[in-house]
């Protein structure tokens, strides 16, 4: 007994469901034909399902659990598969406050089978007298007008919606179930047709009038179906995948978001776009973790358009690092900044750990002004790739020293506390806000937008990235020489790592406001090339559903890490067409330098 109890405890812990309870007001997840699960009862119970179904047959005065008579075996009795395990769970106080529907579907003759069921159940008072457990008889049932003849612990599944029975017998009805296929042929892929949705909505409304929990049986069993039934108000969702369904429904409120910010779409003039004119200035905007789905989510949440989607020159870049199929930000940033693929975690060094010049250093020798903006700490992997050289991205002190040694004209980012005991102020004129860049005539300037981690848009950062881009461009342009500015929207990646849909959408929309500033500057200053890309994609983000009019996005994820999927690259201005196509991320470096004389 001790061994079995230990197994059960470990099983529930591994499932991670002991403390994930549905409240009474939430939808119930019904484990349909639960006996077909690899581990009947325990799998559904530990997963958080609050309704469990078992089909029973009366044979030789025993109750067996099976889908058909041919599947009956001596070891699969109702007691062994369900009643004893449930009794054990109650003794161990597993989910003792959770409501549970135990639906028993009678497959043999109703009255004798139910009579035997009552006899068997009477041995389990911990179940029959538990106020949180309802034993519900379905399938072959006695006449509805005889329901009150059965013990108080027996309830019934009513399947004749619209039929009237006496008030006393109606009190024995615990739920209402109907055959889904009578109302729709939808298979759970895509969406319900408008006609079928009206039929489904009508039967749900009729069922709601009974004030009993409502269930469709024979319904499609997909994520799209679960979501549709959830939103339409079905009280009990039928599924053969209780764990997946519970996880999906529980996470849905967090994955279904309404955009909290917006980006005013800028329509470029295209005056110099794709023209073979001399490139003078380059603005490289990097959305960290910003894959195609992240961009799509922001587009759809922003009335179907962004400033970046107005661009005509589009390509894709492959992001693999020198030593891994899936890159990190350090290796990807280094590839973009130096033109060489390197190992993950390396910044500004090659795969042999030797320093390699970045594009800022190359252009500084050509008398270019240079700057870096990020919504990360300034020592973060992506911004550091444009001024630092270290084989390990976590060497923050070494990266900070490289910033002091760099010849950057400008930096904007977080992490001011890292430089408290340095002479950074002798290297850069430290300003109190990005707005001060507008009037500053300093040769070099820096703005710390936070002492540590930079707040997100959801935390009230506002339009700081757009303002930083605008004023930094003005600051560099005043130098009357060509410049290269790197702008990073860092926190798309941060929210991808924690699977936060609202964070991804808000940061991607915010990144587009910075893109708008870059495009507007390019239209006012001929010879400016704007390039927008990502270092990699984060989280395997997907957007299965949403509502453009309501600015709603439903997101989903396959990981909390980076993925190896290609990322888009957009460009605008002279020679923007040179960035079309599909190529490696380190080729961006050479493409840029080939255009700068």
Automatic annotation (TrEMBL):
The active site is at residue 329. One of its GO terms (biological process) is lipid metabolic process. Zn(2+) binds at residues 288, 493, 497, 535-536. It is an enzyme of class 3 (hydrolase). Coiled coil: none annotated. The keyword Zinc applies. Its EC number is 3.1.3.1. This is Alkaline phosphatase. One of its GO terms (molecular function) is alkaline phosphatase activity. Its cofactor is Zn(2+); Mg(2+). Mg(2+) binds at residues 288, 382, 488.
